[in-house]
Amino acid sequence: MELIIKDLHAEVEDKKILKGLNLHLKTGELHAIMGPNATGKSTLSAIIMGNPKYKVTQGSIMLDGENVLEMTVDERSRKGIFLAMQYPNEIAGITNADFIKSAMQARLKEGENISLFKFVREMDKAVKELHMDPDMPHRYVNEGFSGGERKRNEILQMKMLKPHFAILDEIDSGLDIDALKIVGKNINAMRGDEFSALIITHYQRLLDYIDVDFVHIMIDGQIVKSGGKELIAKIDAEGYDWIRDELGIEEEFETSRRIALGSCAVKDRK
Amino acid sequence: MIDKIYKKLANLIDEDKKYIIFYDGKVLKTNTTGIDCKVSEDDYFPTDEVYTREKNDLEKEILDNKAFSTTIHIYNNIDLKLVHINKDLKYLNYNIVVKDNTRVNITNIYFDIKQPVKVLMEMICEVNSKVHLNTFINASVEVDTISNIYCLDYATLYLTDMFLNQDKTKHIANVFLVNNDTESHMTNVIINNSGHEQNYDYNIYHDALNTKSSIHNFGIVQKESISVFDNKGIIKEGAKGSDLSQQTKGIILDLYSTIIANPILEIDENDVAANHGASIGAIDEKDLYYLMSRGLTREHSERLLIEAFISPYFRYVDDVKLRNYAIREVNKNLDN
After folding, report:
1. Whether residue B206 is found in the same domain as residue B177
2. Which of B284, B293, B308 is closest, CB to CB, to A73?
3. SS3 per-residue string spanning chain B
4. What pTM was computed for the model?
């Protein structure tokens, strides 16, 4: 399967974030996107998933020839796109097990039902593999979870739903080194002909544990450089300035206006 | 007739669990033995002996017009289901006395209410009793209900209500923490798609030292309906160490419905804690997005979020038959 993103432009509240992004993912491959803050990495993940907050103004996202941008969020999910969110929501009153079971059931044809025995066995196995509290399936979705538990819970959902294209948006934030290893191991274990992941991260440390095939550098709403794992070490050592220098990209700064509280006049700096 | 009614209640009654079925206020069928609890017709109920207060107009109207009063005396620990079927009575008055040191779980169901009715229920939770009263009402006609509950020394009360009424409704629950170290915790779920205004007053009176109370209201409205929650919390002079909290949460499912929360706190003592809060709005779009991103349709996601919203009520419902019945009725109500 292929997920092809072409010339993608997108904005939020009239602010342009993505400015002609191109990316080609195939199942069987693991990709990483790295880049400095505020370059549009999370926006890209939200747009692929269909977050209504963002507006696509140009370009396309095609999944095996089907226009993803015309699909609703739930259709995208059922077609095999998964987003492990940076800040997953807390849903008190729905247990993890019920939620995941409902999501799995939503993928079946009418009249088909999940075998409860198989579901419980699979869930228990996934919980163990992620070194999660055995009680986790019975707790409400993300309620009272630590940052690390939330991230593991996203990976748990991914393991259970078995998507074709998983986007992992800064899954490493909030994870300690042991948890990073566990998450990395679980993502590696999913590698196969039917699975691809797009791992969005700032840091090398997650990629120490995930064996990615391609690394893309995103700056100012575009993929500006793609390559192999050698890029990771270079970014870790030198940051992103060398890419800007190499490609002649000027760093954009947001213009801000000084605000003085409690004064009767403000003189702007010339 | 008994068999016919009993058959209709098959989804609610278990023969191996204690129940009393009332038909127009009189006992129609029961499997209680009289040892754990006994039902009597008493015109006099001794609330004045435990608490002095002015009765409101609705109470006076019911007491003036009732044909008779029924009192359920509970002597031992018991799980008891009360089912009220009302066909002709316009005024219904029944009372419950929970004796000292008993642990009681009462499921109180108003079933198939087709005649507008005004109900006064009074309950005394005697010394060191622990009582859970869970009331479920799904009436298709106008109902006015008052519950007055008096907690004596060390009594603990859990009060849970679910209202799915399809017409105008006025419900007043007054809990009086009469003596020291008493507690009351209320969890109320109100789903209003009647197209009418419904009023729910949950009032708590802290009259003694170290009394604790909480009120959690969960309201859902749709189809141009209005739900008004008036929560009065009163801490009287001398009730030092009291702790009171009130919270109302609401989901509005259309543009034309309204939920109004009016917290009223009257604090006449120092050294107490009291707080209130309310959050009312549409279903959170971020929650919907999260559920939909896992493949659930918008409709399915909304329904799950509603189920999640009212789940605090079901935490208190151990009875499987009532739980299943309530879930079915909630779904039917929301689909209407």
Report:
1. yes
2. B293
3. CHHHHHHHCCCCCCCCCEEEEEECCEEEEECCCCCCEEEEECCCCCHHHHCCCCCCHHHHHHHHHCCCCEEEEECCCEEEEEEEECCCCCEEEEEEEECCCCEEEEEEEEECCCCCEEEEEEEEECCCCEEEEEEEECCCCCEEEEEEEEECCCCEEEEEEEECCCCCEEEEEEEEECCCCCEEEEEEEEEECCCCEEEEEEEEEECCCCCEEEEEEEEEECCCCEEEEEEEEEECCCCCCCEEEEEEEEEECCCCCEEEEEEEEEECCCCCEEEEEEEEECCCHHHHHHHHCCCCCHHHHHHHHHHHHCHHHHCCCCCHHHHHHHHHHHHHHHHC
4. 0.89
